[in-house]
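$ ./design --mode recover --in tokens.txt
reading tokens...
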């Protein structure tokens, strides 16, 4: 007896939906970077600028690690990318601006908070541009000074002056100039080397390991001085590359010409 049902056309059985979640390891590292920026602000409010600057540098280290860990463990996600950008805005945008303001820019009155705001706003603009231009920028270079390096310039200067016991009141205008330089350089089109083409998985000459050991030894001579000098050189390197390319008649834009993305039209002008 036929019951009217076709065994070849059974109703679709709804498969159980897979619950979405987030990857713990890279996002915990990103949260650690966020905590570094938050800790820096709290320490600045308590006049512990030495600890505040260390918080910024700790956030830099963790920020450099989270993306690499995500790629190594194949745990990249859109959530992680957004979390990383928000963490960067706090640790390398708001935190350095507030620390610089509390340290000495407050004494300049209106000019002080204007400099701090310009830095903070440029950090936000730089991060937003980075997110939308990821597909068309030459990965060997950053378009403008990366926000962690800008934060290192501001925090490194405060750390160095604090270590030498120099009064913040005597450094208000130098801090003003450095804060504006770091902020505005973030939103330029100047190319800064990204080090992304260096792979830790490739074999290297033995001398490379020796150079790394020497670098660690040099940094330990006096970390505030050495780190600040390194980031000053990096902060100037982009302009040197720009002027060198300009003098040779080469393309100065870091927008890649190898992509066929339609959004790239007009970006090389």
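writing sequence...
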């Amino acid at each position: 007896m036929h019951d009217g049902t076709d065994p070849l056309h059974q109703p679709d059985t709804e498969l159980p939906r897979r619950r979405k979640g987030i990857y713990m390891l890279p996002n915990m590292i990103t949260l650690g970077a966020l905590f570094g920026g938050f800790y820096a602000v709290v320490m600045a409010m308590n006049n512990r600028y030495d600890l505040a600057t260390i918080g910024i540098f700790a956030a830099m280290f963790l920020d450099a690690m989270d993306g690499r860990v995500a790629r190594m463990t194949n745990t990249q996600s859109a959530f992680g990318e957004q979390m990383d950008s928000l963490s960067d805005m706090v640790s390398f945008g708001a935190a350095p601006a507030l620390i610089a303001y509390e340290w000495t820019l407050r004494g300049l009155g209106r000019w002080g908070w204007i400099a701090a705001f310009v830095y903070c706003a440029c950090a936000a603009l730089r991060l937003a541009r980075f997110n939308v231009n990821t597909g068309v920028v030459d990965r060997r270079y950053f378009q403008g000074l990366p926000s962690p390096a800008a934060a290192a310039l501001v925090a490194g200067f405060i750390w160095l002056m604090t270590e030498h016991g120099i009064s913040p009141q005597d450094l208000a205008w130098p801090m003003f100039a450095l804060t504006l330089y770091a902020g505005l350089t973030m939103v330029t089109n100047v190319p800064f080397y990204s080090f992304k083409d260096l792979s830790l998985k490739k074999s290297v000459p033995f001398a490379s390991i020796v150079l790394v050991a020497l670098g660690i030894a040099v940094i330990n001579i006096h970390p505030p001085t050495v780190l600040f000098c390194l980031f000053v050189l990096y902060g100037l390197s982009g302009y040197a590359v720009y002027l060198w390319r300009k003098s040779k008649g080469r393309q100065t834009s870091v927008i890649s010409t190898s992509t066929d993305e339609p959004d790239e039209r007009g970006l090389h002008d």
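exit 0
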